[in-house]
Amino acid sequence: MADRGCPLEAVPLPAEVRESLAELELELSEGDITQKGYEKKRAKLLARYIPLIQGVDPSLQAENRMPAPSQTTAAVPKQQKPRPTSSRDERFRSDVHTEAVQAALAKYKERKMPMPSKRRSVLVHSSVETYTPPDTSSASEDEGSLRRPGRLTSTPLQSHSNIEPWLDRVIQGSSTSSSASSTSSHPGGRPAAAPTAAATTLTGPAAHAHLDVHSAPPDVTTGLGELSHRERPQLASVRGVARGYSGSVLETAGGVPVNSRVSSKIQQLLNTLKRPKRPPLKEFFVDDFEELLEVQQPDPNQPKPEGSQMVVLRGEPLAVGVPWPPSLLAALQRWGTTQPKAPCLTALDTAGKAVYTLTYGKLWSRSLKLAYTLLNKLTSKNEPLLKPGDRVALVFPNSDPVMFMVAFYGCLLADLVPVPIEVPLTRKDAGSQQVGFLLGSCGVTLALTTDACQKGLPKAQTGEVATFKGWPPLSWLVIDGKHLTKPPKDWRPQTQDAGAGTAYIEYKTSKEGSTVGVTVSHASLLAQCQALTQACGYSEAETLTNVLDFKRDAGLWHGVLTSVMNRMHVISIPYALMKVNPLSWIQKVCSYKARAALVKSRDMHWSLLAQRGQRDVSLSSLRVLIVADGANPWSISSCDAFLNVFQSRGLRPEVICPCATSPEALTVAIRRPPDLGGPPPKKAVLSMNGLSFGVIRVDTEEKLSVLTVQDVGQVLPGADVCVVKVEGAPYLCKTDEVGELCVSSTTTGTAYYGLLGITKSVFETVPVTAGGMPVSDRPFTRTGLLGFIGPDNLVFVVGKLDGLMVVGVRRHSADDIVATALAVEPMKFVYRGRIAVFSVTVLHDDRIVLVAEQRPDASEEDSFQWMSRVLQGSVTSTATCVQLHKKAERVAAALMEKARLGTGDHVALVYPPGVDLIAAFYGCLYCGCVPVTVRPPHPQNLTTTLPTVKMIVEVSKSACVLTTQAIMRLLKSKDAAAAVDIRTWPTILDTDDIPKKKVANIFRPPSPDVLAYLDFSVSTTGILAGVKMSHAATSALCRSIKLQCELYPSRQIAICLDPYCGLGFALWCLCSVYSGHQSVLVPPLELESNVSLWLSAVSQYKARVTFCSYSVMEMCTKGLGAQTGVLRVPPGVPLQAFLRWLRTAPPLLPQMKGVNLSCVRTCMVVAEERPRIALTQSFSKLFKDLGLPARAVSTTFGCRVNVAICLQGTAGPDPTTVYVDMRALRHDRVRLVERGSPHSLPLTESGKILPGVKVIIAHTETKGPLGDSHLGEIWVSSPHNATGYYTGYGEEALHADHFSARLSFGDTQTIWARTGYLGFLRRTELTDASGERHDALYVVGSLDETLELRGMRYHPIDIETSVVRAHRSIAECAVFTWTNLLVVVVELDGLERDALDLVALVTNVVLEEHHLVVGVVVIVDPGVIPINSRGEKQRMHLRDGFLADQLDPIYVAYNM
After folding, report:
1. For strand 1272-1277 and strand 1254-1258, is the pairing parallel, antiparallel, or unpaired?
2. Burial of 1177 from C-beta contacts in 10 A (0-12 / 13-18 / 19+)
């Protein structure tokens, strides 16, 4: 027991306590209890006997603490948690081991040279040295940190109350959890006490308690062991004070400082083994004592409603003087007796033939017969089975409207309440279970059906209809004529008036799947029929074609109820017929000369697909075409497309009448034809960003980030409508605010059957003004529709409450997301009408789920591609030149009026890739300003990216920053203030909601040499530099690219480059406007989530020319290859090894089966480096079976002084490849050798030199011209050369010779620009388009990155290629020099135990192939080597990180 903590012999314990401790010991040793649980229980047992025991939970200490003098000023330090006695910990106490380690450390200190070292823990950044305790002094320890076993260490501290907050800062700076950290311990001795102001020792019972704190292994996290303790005496005062603080000087068991570095992963594993305790997963549960959920605060800059409070909208009154019938049954009796032969309903079969026509006489007589049977012939125990007011289920298929109509009116005549439901499919159908719950709550005991339907229902063994799961016991009555009894001639049903009694119950299914019944009274039923008659202008004997379900919603209200009131003839089109012949409803309109039709947008869409070849159809007879789902956002596209096709066949635009319906309020609004006094139809193009905050903001129709909705007409006659807030009390919304529509009318439903609580909140809502005053003395009914009141008192619906999903603080409509999915043309892959959207909660946040049913003839690959396009690949924005011009005018007007800028002022454009960036660029040119494109900061990495943005803004002397709303908020956020001084930003304008304005005069530059824009970028050497581009150079650049690539207006160009600098910017913003072709712009960042996006866009738009970067090509090569079933790459395989394996891999790509790249003539890689032959060849091989021509892939070359020197173009000879002697290159000589020769290096030309560009090779020092056998600096003379560097501090003169260099002899008159790249020219035997022999330019590398070693010039890429080939676990490599030493940084994509083995391999391969001795080998994790957006290594940034010790290496070896 002594090894556990304190020897219990010092304090006598009762026997039961000792027995309990023994049981705890056993549980811990067998793993039945955690270490933390063991300590808590043990502390409770010992608390009353040893009040000052260390390691007790603070809460327990507070409860059981005994007063002691030492506790008045300082807290007892927490010590290492004890371990079981069975652990092998004696090895850490060895005096021999302590002395050996001390001697070894002393020996290494004497050598004064770098040691082979491993990864430093992250704790080194939180070292004690960086936290100086305020106002504290500590006694120095002459003996250092060595303590012999058995000695008591006292640690005198002064002003301890000031030390505690300092320690808190130290602990907070540590990234290691308190449960996994180790405090320094003193083997064999007693822990450092927490003294008073003077040096003290422990007194009281605890002074005799031996606390064993050395049982845990040493914490080998590195520290500051190279500094002696004399230099920082305060360290002795810190040891053992705070639990969870590992410290920066760490010790072995004997107290010897440890100077070895190990990986943080190994340290983490060691800590886990040391204390087998799993930290709580805060993502999965919330502990009220440990974590409080942070409530997301609303963004102060989010759009807010600004309009006035709306007023209640009153519909037109019901017509007075019209002979309305007193009830619907009175109308039926009238037509059944006076017009018995008038057709009421015609039913069609699946072939489109009329199988039966129900006349009004037959409907009246059959309904009477059914009513008589229900009331008089059904008995139970000699009692009538039904009595007036009972509910009866109507179970009829969608193909039998005749019998349903008879059953419905028969129930009404018998004063029974019909409950129409769907036919149950199986005994355990989940949907029917909810319907069964409704039937049970309604007290239904009888179900009416037809003979054919009953035969199709599942049967029990007795032959009776089976009892469905969740359904109440039912009696089934077949209502075919032979089963009914004819009533006596003198029998008449009781007179029914239009009272408050329930007429029927319509079921409604909520988004959770529960089913409720909405009761509709006789008065509401009659009022609904009257209002629809007046709104739609129905008249007697009209013909109505109905495609909808006649059992519920608009199909019931128009096709069964209102039609009877007006003696109309309804042609019922079954759904089975629509699936066979989608054009059937139009054919019936034509054949029956129907005046009205009732459809959904789905039916209109289907008819569009089937109308080809149908020349004899005419819709000229239609007076009103009611679109029942006109409130859905996708209905407008169906309406517009339907009108465009059928307008030539007699369809008039004013005929289309969308409507909005609700189960609770029935018909809410419907568009009136102009002859009935309806206003012209309206469309609203709304910002979806505004809608997500519940605010109406009008936008343009140029992008898919807007929602275009059509009006659903005016409110019904006799109804009042208002819009109330969705959440909280029903306050009236503002005029520009989205809310829930509420209706006050006699036409609405009356209640949820049997649910009084929610009935009151839905059917008896009392809207109030902002002051709390009710708007009316009549209650309103909530419709569940979200919308607003637009111009001309038209109603607009933007979604449904059931489809509302809240993600974060923003609201999204399921219908909007369905509309987005439908915009990706899914007809070939999924069923249009079978797309569902809902949200699920994941880790305290909502996630949106979209479910679509795949068509049987569609492959999984095709459907997956469609799904990818829905998620990522949709077109975010498009712009024609006219639209771009209008946008640019708005930007120019804002710059002149809001920012008050003048000609020549610089403007920073901080935009994500998109049309807004291009419009802002031309807006600056329109007003004479100089644009500077800047990559926006990354929201998750502001500390690194925002200072670069701020630097470019300051260096460019920008007077204004143009950006979007989201980025503007980011630039002014608190997180941004921690990275830069946000008070020094210039004027920031957001261009999301600038008004439409024109500029009086567009700026015309007085001279072609006037500055057009500044091009800022970071070079491969890590230098931020901006170059000046004049209007003349800009025009010349566009002209050269147009000629080289044959960019005609009919061409489609796909560009997957960053648009912020160099050739990428020119292709994004300049070339398409200059040449008139269509550019398909694909931001490279999008490929991280959808790697096939670029190639899919190339295939979809049949792009002839496409541009990309090496990073994009690498992403496609590795990503798409790894996703295919044939090209399955094992995890952990580096790219170079994958490329080598790819040369022998099978060529098929099933994942990209739908992509066809045969349209590509030229695929150019934009770069400022030597062409990567292996990558381009592997890309060509991988995608050749998708049609990519073998000779399509080529490279380009440009630099800071000239962004486009070489482009392959679409004409001219293919790129040539030569092999040079690598040893000769080191002496700046070019010697051609045969392929496969020793030391041969393949080099391919960097495209064809552009028209108007002259290139010469010059000596780097003498500046004289060189021949083709010499390697020299590439100089370029061109009309589109940049005119100079731009800096804000007058440093242009330092680099003046870069842009105005002259040869020292030869052609000394021509002005050249120095590129800073080494290369050579070769005259080939090939001829170009002009018939002349072709000069090929070969780029070898950057002059600034070459390594001068042993009097020779080495290129980093050559050494890096050799290193990558050395081992399959080497993912990437970068080299640089440090004090004449060659440093090789290797990314290890494998096990850390292999790190040591790589050192010898790297050293040997560099020595054998390049005759160089590697000075330092640094093994790091993948991703450490920085790469810019073009895929080029940033070796100077890597060098800076190495010198600042920021690489967090796995292993470092110094070969000295």
Report:
1. antiparallel
2. middle
Pair 1136, 1365: CB distance under 8 Å: yes
- As beta bridge partners, residue 1195 has 1165
149-179, pLDDT tens digit by residue? 333 333 333 333 333 333 343 333 433 333 3
Q: Which residues, listed in sequence order, are joined to residue 1386 by a DSSP beta bridge?
A: 1373, 1419
Which sign, positive or negative, has the C-alpha torsion 30, 32, 34, 35?
A: negative
Strand partners, 1322: 1336
Burial of 426 (0-12, 13-18, 19+ CB in 10 A): exposed
Length of the chain equals 1456
Pick from 876-890, 1288-1302, 1373-1387: least confident: 1288-1302
The 8-class DSSP code of residue 1328 comes to: -
Nearest of 1226, 1229, 1436, 1236 to residue 1351 by alpha carbon: 1226
Other CB atoms within a 10 A radius of the CB of residue 983 amount to 7
Q: Is the CB of residue 1206 less than 8 Å from the CB of residue 1197? A: yes
pLDDT reading at 1297 higher than 80: no
Gyration radius of the chain over CA positions:
41
Cα 995 to chain centroid, rounded: 30
- Classify 1273 as helix, strand or coil: strand
What is the C-alpha to C-alpha distance for residues 63 and 47, in angstroms, rounded to an integer?
9
- Which tokens is 471 given? 């359904």
Residue 903: which of 1001, 986, 991 has the closest Cα?
A: 1001
Taking residues 1098-1125, report their average pLDDT: 82
For Cα atoms 993, 995, 996, give the angle at the middle one, nearest 5 degrees.
125
pLDDT digits (tens, 9 = 90+) for 614-661: 667 889 999 999 999 988 887 888 898 899 888 888 999 999 999 999
List 658's β-bridge partners, or say none: 627
Nearest in space to 398 (alpha carbons), one of 578, 545, 565, 518: 578
Closest CA to 1243 of 1361, 1117, 1410, 1106: 1361
What's the confidence (pLDDT) of residue 1020? Answer: 66
Alpha helices in 740-813 (DSSP H): 756-763
CA distances in angstroms from 531 to 713, 787, 1388, listed in the order given = 14, 22, 76
Tokens of 830: 């999924």
Which amino acid, one-letter code, is at 608?
Answer: L
Which band of pLDDT confidence, cut at 50, 70 and 90, is reported for residue 243?
very low
Instruction: In whole angstroms, give the CA distance from residue 446 to residue 478.
Output: 11
pLDDT band at 858 (very low <50, low <70, confident <90, very high): confident
Question: What is d(CA 46, CA 52) in angstroms, rounded to the nearest whole number?
Answer: 10
- Residue 25 banded pLDDT, cuts 50, 70, 90: confident
Name the range with the highest mean pLDDT among 597-611, 811-825, 1044-1058. Answer: 1044-1058
Task: Please answer whether residues 559 and 570 qualify as being in contact, where contact means their C-beta atoms are separated by less than 8 angstroms.
Answer: yes
pLDDT on residue 1242: 94
pLDDT of amino acid 180? 37
For the chain, the first-to-last Cα distance in angstroms comes to 52
Exposed/middle/buried for 188, CB within 10 Å: 0-12, 13-18, 19+? Answer: middle
CA angle in degrees (0–180, nearest 5) for 155-160-165: 120
State the Cα–Cα distance between residues 165 and 221, nearest whole angstrom. 24
CB neighbour class for 460 (10 Å; exposed up to 12, middle 13-18, buried from 19): exposed
Measure the CA–CA gap between 894 and 889, rounded to whole angstroms.
9
Q: How does the average pLDDT of the chain come out, rounded?
A: 79
Distance CA 1116, CA 1193 (A): 14
Q: What is the arrangement of strands in the sheet containing 1414-1420, beginning at the earlier edge strand?
A: 117-118, 1451-1454, 1414-1420, 1381-1388, 1370-1378
Q: For 32, list phi and psi in degrees, rounded to 5.
A: -80, -5
1063: its two tokens: 């050739």
Calculate the CA 503 to chain-centre distance.
49
Residue 1294 one-letter amino acid = L
